[in-house]
Amino acid sequence: MRNKKIAVIGGGLTGLTAAYCLTKRNFDVTIFEKEDHLGGLAATFKDKNWKWPLEIFFHHLFTSDHQAKNLINELGLGNKLFFKKSPSSIFYGNRIYRFDSAMSVLKFSPLTFFNRLRTGLATVSIKTFLPWQIIENKPANIFSKQFFGQQVSQILWQPLLKGKFGSHQQTISAAWFWARIKKRSSKLGYLEGSFQVLIDKLEKEIKRNKGQIKLNQEIKSLNQLKNFDNIIITTAGQLFDKKQSWPKMIGAINLVLSLKKPFFNDGTYWLNINDNDFPFIAVVEQTNFVDQKNYNQNSLLYLGGYYPSGHPFFKYNQQQLLKKFLPFLKRINPEFKLNNNLNEVFIFKKPYAQPIMPTGYSRILNQLQKQNGKSVIANMQLIYPYDRGINYAIKIGQEAAGKIN
User: What pLDDT sits at residue 190?
Assistant: First the structure.
């Protein structure tokens, strides 16, 4: 009896995980990836002087990311996984405020002392006993006002919702908001050598199990895969499944600066921008999380934002976007000078990077998860209420593989 032939559309971590699980069960698996590299949103790039590659979009793990940790251990990479505390802050009112511990919340002076206490208690409530199911029919912006209070919502949460989702901010489910708080841990995880180590190991195991990986192979129609018994689709659902009303997706753009000197003076790793005048929502200095020695003693700075697919930034090159962003960098750090400090600048764009998860999303989730004939869809639109990330890319890849017999 011949082994079933399985096609996997997309060579991101979901596709790689699904293929790895299926090849372990002796299925005849072929991955089709339209790019010339694997990894999807977790793909990396490398300057010739760097020891480690760098993700094109910033990634880390939380301590509760069990699927990712279990897979990393299964693949024999557990000795490369580490967790550490790295300073996270908020930019509000033209100032940087540390915001990653109970003490830093109590010191956050833009809030009244009562509201600082309320923020801490509300956060603990979400993390310990509030189930997302009872709030998913509320918009996140309404829930944040009711649960945290008007001032807290206005200063902490509304700018982030607007910065990420723009015109969709009022439709986002409170369950998505809940998950963002629920998942966060004080320690963040990373792999020695970057997440490229995980991508490479999955590729090696798939090939060792006689799976095939075809790069530069874009699938535009499922008719191209008629000879396969089953198809796992890891791209946005609306690209191949026209029967369902898939949630809208927004894109992401990252500008990466390689600098001679650090951008932050206080060692901040992650800075949320709580000011909607800014054209980006996060500034992440990767080398305040991992050692500069792995990047030729350079400081690596991400400037990231989410944008609808028709946004003008998708037509900008790296120099044009840097010129647009530079005045805002100087607002964060008035001492920052680009001249004689910039090594290189890189730009990365993905039109499908974040699903819009509206209120009551679970009502349509079961329908979206149904297998459509011989096709199984496994993508970030199905990980509700959780958000995009490596752990859930792995989880839905494992679940998709489990649906094939």
Answer: 98
Dmax over CA atoms of the chain, in Å, equals: 71
Residue 304 DSSP SS3: strand
Residue 246 is given by DSSP the state P
Residue 2 has pLDDT above 80, yes or no: no
In 3D space, the residue among 316, 320, 289 whose CA is nearest the CA of residue 302 turns out to be 289
Terminal C-alpha separation, the chain:
14
Asked if 273 contacts 280 with a C-beta cutoff of 8 angstroms, the reply is yes
Pairwise pLDDT comparison (238 vs 394), residue with the higher score: 394
Q: DSSP letters along 134-159, please?
A: GTTTSBHHHHHHHHH-HHHIIIIIHH
Reading across the β-sheet that carries 28-32, which strands appear in turn? 212-214, 28-32, 5-9, 230-233, 375-377
Distance CA(228)–CA(225), nearest Å, equals 6
Confidence check: pLDDT of 261 > 80: yes
Task: Say how far apart CA 113 and CA 115 lie, in whole Å.
Answer: 5
Rounded to whole angstroms, how far apart are CA atoms 345 and 405?
47
CB 233 within 8 A of CB 375: yes
* Alpha-carbon gap, residue 194 to 191, rounded angstroms: 5
Pairing of strands 61-62, 187-191: antiparallel
3-state secondary structure of 247: coil
* DSSP reduced 3-state for 299: strand
Query: In this predicted structure, what is the pLDDT of residue 388?
Result: 83
Tokens coding 11: 């060579």
Domain locations along the chain: 5-61+195-245+359-402, 101-185
Superfamily of domain covering 5-61+195-245+359-402: FAD/NAD(P)-binding domain (3.50.50.60)
Beta 249-259 vs 299-307: how paired, if at all?
A: antiparallel
Q: What angle do CA 279, 284, 289 make, to 5 degrees?
A: 180
Q: Are 157 and 177 in contact (CB under 8 A)?
A: yes
Neighbours of 390 (CB within 10 A): 27
Contacts for 262 with CB less than 8 Å, ≥ 6 apart: 285, 287, 288, 299
Is pLDDT above 60 for 1? no
Sheet containing strand 187-191, edge to edge, reads: 61-62, 187-191, 81-85
